[in-house]
Structures are given as structure tokens and as C-alpha cells.
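Cross-posted from the bioinformatics board.
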Amino acid sequence: MAGFRLLMATQVGEKVARDEGFTNLPVQPLAIAERKDLHVEKKPPGMKGISGALIFMEPKPLLIYSSEHQNIGFENFSIAHELGHYCLPDHPSQILQEGGQHFSRAGFSEGALSIELEADHFAAGLLMPGFLVRRLIDDSEVGIEGIRHLAEMAEVSLTAAAIRVAQCARFPICVVVSAGQAVLYTFPSETFKGLGRNIFLRKGADLPINSTTARFNALASNVSAGRQATGECRLRDWFTTDRNPVLDEQVVGLGSYGLTLTVLSSDELAIEPDRDEDDEEVALQDSWTPKFARGR
Ligand SMILES: [Zn+2]
């Protein structure tokens, strides 16, 4: 599926937040849903394995969200995801074609259904509009502290904030989510992809042996207790690539989900390359510029 459709879904989310007058964080999806004249209800107990639903019915469409984790970030993302199905072009007609009832699974996942991915990207754009994210992270420290700050301000999960920072950041940052010794997914920022050739990790790849993350995950209680660890690594520890700068590796356990969030970044690489540096660096800088222009 084209990344274009996901970018568009993000932008529709940002536009809805703007149209509803949100110029500061947090954007409140519940207030937006009510203003759009949706009937909103918490998910009844017993509706298992579902993060929310959108049901077209009279007199008003019904939006159901999950509050079972007693976690404002999870609730916000759930409501925003269902709002996506209501606001994104083609979603209501597709849901109506399939009987008028849509049930959503999990959060920001790699789900196979395109409308699920689109609704997740809508939710990320709605809850964390790009201009607000950039304003915030430009003033924060590169890495996990900036991500925590965004998660608190936007009232979203740490993972959702981390992925959005990677999408919006001007500095090189890569988010890795792992379970045990395996990589689940990675989100490099555009500038991180510019650090070397072929910055890519397949799903299920082994964590680098002896990395801070691998050692952290070896003790399950680190993950469940939400502990944090910090180390240093090299780009080639993680990727089969041509360059090998030093990176900070920040690791945090995501608690009961059994997942770990790793942030690869560098304060030093965030500084813009000096124009007098060698040609390679200039070429690298040139290759970043068009991507920024498209991303805005
Ligand atoms: Zn859905």
C-alpha cells in the first residue's frame, strides 16, 4: 500500500484538530467526537480483543472506545482511531458496504487491513499535529526525554509519541520496538535514513548481541517494571550499512505489554553539518533537503 495514503490520513487528522480549534496540546478526541454529533460510549465489559468500534445506526452513529486499561493514552488513541473511520474519505462507505459495523483491534499495529493502518495514522496526526510536535521537540532534549515530554503533553502512549517524533523530527532518531531478543518494528526518521545506506531491519531480526537492548531484555523484570537503561552503540551494530557513527541507545520497558522501546539518536548528529566539511557530508545534507520539503 502506498505510503501516500498513510501520509494523507495523517494530514486529515491534523486538519480535523486544526478545524476544531486545537492550537495546543492535548487535542481532545472525545470532545471532537461529541461535537461531530457522534454518540460515544465506553466498551461494555465482555467485548474482548477489540479496542473500539464505529457503528452506523439511527439516530446517531455510535463510537465505542476501550477504557479497560485505565490509561488515558490508550483511550485517546482508541477514540481518535474510530474518529478516523468517520472522517477519512472512503471509510464510512466501506464500513456501510460491510454491514455498517466496524470493530478495531489493538493500537498502532502493523495490521494487514489498510483502513486500520490509515485510522492509526489519522489518530497520530489528530493527537499530535506536526507543527505542535516540532515546536515541542525543538525545545526538548533529543531522545527519550523529548518523547516522554510529548507523551505527557499529548496524553498518548510512549510508543505512539516515539513513532510520531521519528516522523516529525529534523534530527536523526530511530525508534525500535522489540520483544525478547527479536525486533518487532523500526521507525527511522528521514535524517536517520540519511546516516548510511540501507537503513532497514526486517521484522523478527535478532537484536544485536551485547547491545544495551539485548542485555536489558534478557531480564524480563526490566521490561515489566518499566525500567530504563542507557548505553552507546555504533550504527553498524544495528544495520548492515556503509557508515558507522556513534549513537546513544536509550531503552525503556513498556510494562505489562512485554515490549521494549529503544531510541537510537545522537545529540552531536543533530547539529547541522558545517558547510566547510568534506564533500560527502555536503552531499548527505543535500539528500535530506527534498525529503523535508515533501514531508511538510
Ligand atoms: Zn479500526
